[in-house]
User: Fold these one by one.
Assistant:
Number 1:
Amino acid sequence: MAPLLSSLGLILSSLEAISSLHAGFSNAVIEQVRSNLIAIASQSWELGTAAEALTELDWPALSVFNASAIPPPYELDAANNASDVLKIATSTVSAKPSDSLALVANDGAVGDPASIGVAVLLANWTDSSDISYASAASEQLDYLLNVAPRTDSGAISQRSDQVQLWADFIYMAPPFIAYYGALQGGDNGTSLLQTAFEQISLYRDVLRDDDGLWRHVALGSWEDSTHWATGNGWAAAGMLRVLETLDHSSVASDFAEQSASLAQWIQEIISTAWQYQAENGTLLNTIDDPTSFPDSSGTALLASVTYRMAVYSNDTSLIPYADKAFQVIGDSIDENGWLRNTVDPETFDTPSAASSASPEGQAFVLLLQAAYTEYAQSVASGQVIPTSNSTSSSGSSNGDDDDSNILRRCRLVHRK
Ligand SMILES: *[C@@H]1O[C@H](CO)[C@@H](O)[C@H](O)[C@H]1NC(C)=O
Ligand SMILES: *[C@@H]1O[C@H](CO)[C@@H](O)[C@H](O)[C@H]1NC(C)=O
Ligand SMILES: *[C@@H]1O[C@H](CO)[C@@H](O)[C@H](O)[C@H]1NC(C)=O
Ligand SMILES: *[C@@H]1O[C@H](CO)[C@@H](O)[C@H](O)[C@H]1NC(C)=O
Ligand SMILES: *[C@@H]1O[C@H](CO)[C@@H](O)[C@H](O)[C@H]1NC(C)=O
Ligand SMILES: *[C@@H]1O[C@H](CO)[C@@H](O)[C@H](O)[C@H]1NC(C)=O
Ligand SMILES: *[C@@H]1O[C@H](CO)[C@@H](O)[C@H](O)[C@H]1NC(C)=O
């Protein structure tokens, strides 16, 4: 009797879990968001972020979240061609002057051009006929490691003209350094993986506050000590990409300790941030300043990290917050596929003007959809079992996830 009851309980909780899933954003919405992103992404960090978002959403087998993504195939199938990602790599490398080590010349930011480096490494790996990608990637690495200014502790500056650390750097440079190392293999590859981890650790030493949130900018001629939502998103999402790269590299077992640290450092950001979530699911631009304005960009990025971390750690306790965030992001995408209520990505502290959109915000919607898709697949396959609380979240819009619906699905299963 007991085993039967407990397996019935398991079936019930799995059904409850599956019934709590929503469908994600529709293909039509995602298509508009994607084409708007491609139309307006122009700055180095926007292009790097766009390339990553397109990889995760459209070519997930090639993203570091897939256990068999490293290394990629030497030749891409017609159906898995990563064409939009490789286009960003190709146009960047062909525009790069030969006297620039960085992928984008005279950018001012150290890390931002490197964000395109992951796509350039993918282009190199899958197109042996063109050596310009390999040299562009290795020059970019050389610039980061050997030319850019550093703090006394060794943290690579985010600015080229002074030593200044920005939370944004974590999404821009360490994922490239780690991917480079994972592809390179051998002792040099291992040492790059370690470098990616150490840079994160050095940044965290400077930017993290006691509650786990990160300040935006420290050192140099000016500082931004606020807990910027997008900055915390850059830090958490960048750490997550490095974590996945370490875990899916051939030397994952040597990095177990670093991986555990990264998972904890990501978790402390998201678990603190969601404590400040507004009633309708949004985060404020300065997470813990109630006088700040709502920001859908940072909300989307942190929600994407939250879905990914639930799969990574099999801990769904923050999913109700992510589901609420998902709902408000859906409500913030207008009928033409533009994410509204974003922070102006150039000022950091004012809302975007009514006439302008945030390229990074558009990319964060795609990252959110990709993360949610992986989460939903993990729940559907029984790999992750959500706490029953997620059922009551606002993620599914038509409100038919009540007990009678669960029972109805139960009966369907019993009939099989
Ligand atoms: C990872 O990619 C491989 C192809 O390289 C694919 O067969 C597999 O289904 C992917 N795994 C997941 C979890 O998507
Ligand atoms: C790349 O793949 C997409 C989706 O599978 C397909 O629509 C497109 O035609 C492909 N492009 C090329 C150049 O093969
Ligand atoms: C470029 O790709 C080739 C495989 O096609 C690989 O052997 C080489 O190490 C790659 N270079 C870099 C810098 O990743
Ligand atoms: C490893 O790095 C060193 C120093 O940069 C270099 O001289 C050596 O050729 C590299 N080894 C391999 C196998 O790439
Ligand atoms: C689940 O719901 C209960 C009651 O509403 C609440 O106290 C608890 O914090 C919720 N847990 C999560 C993980 O949201
Ligand atoms: C969410 O609530 C905030 C107030 O906390 C409000 O300013 C914002 O417009 C709301 N967002 C949406 C999409 O309704
Ligand atoms: C995740 O947690 C659930 C519930 O605690 C458990 O049944 C399941 O086996 C776990 N999955 C993994 C992959 O650890």
Number 2:
Amino acid sequence: MAFENYHTLKSELTPYQACLVAVSKTKPAEQILELYKQGQRVFGENTVQEMTAKHDALPKDIHWHLIGHLQTNKVKYIAPFVSMIHSVDSFKLLNEIDKQAAKNERVIDCLLQIHIAQEETKFGLSYAEAEELLNAAEVQQLRNVRICGFMAIATNTDDESLIAKEFQQMQNFFIKMRAQPNGADITQLSMGMSSDYKIALRYGATMIRVGSMLFGERDYQR
Ligand SMILES: *Cc1c(COP(=O)(O)O)cnc(C)c1O
């Protein structure tokens, strides 16, 4: 594993005070433990099954962030321990997270996933949908979820000006929502991966999600 990359990345993040989510999907527990021993505590996974297996196997002071699509019927498996869910994109899902968090006597931190890329995808909300969700009365009544901000994935392209434009629009929306009367909890902007985190930091990312730069290429993409 490229520990050099890890320490370089950590020092790059220092001036921005941004949080590094080390994306360990598809990587074995032993590799996660190596990075843990270097000081890393926040890890990101994109499936419930992988995250629960790794949570069982690894030190309990790891903060597990779910960054992939979450099905309502699987929330119960991660509700006892997950630190943050980056991929909330419906009221139905938020409501289920609230219910399962209550059962575990917890408040679960959530981000709304915004669809900012040009690629077609089933996942993520438009800005208008996210604003509507944030301000919905039934959302404000939920006591066991805290909407802390937004997660976004830029278009997968070499065109840095397009990525910059998407991140800038995302930042503008983040600033606007944070300034709303009910925006006190809106503090986190999760954007940037191995290929585009430097651009994301320029546009106010408070969390970056980096996998392959730390762990090497994955055997299969997902
Ligand atoms: C896999 C993944 C990442 C990390 O991607 P890398 O290119 O390996 O850094 C970040 N965010 C999400 C949502 C992912 O699924």
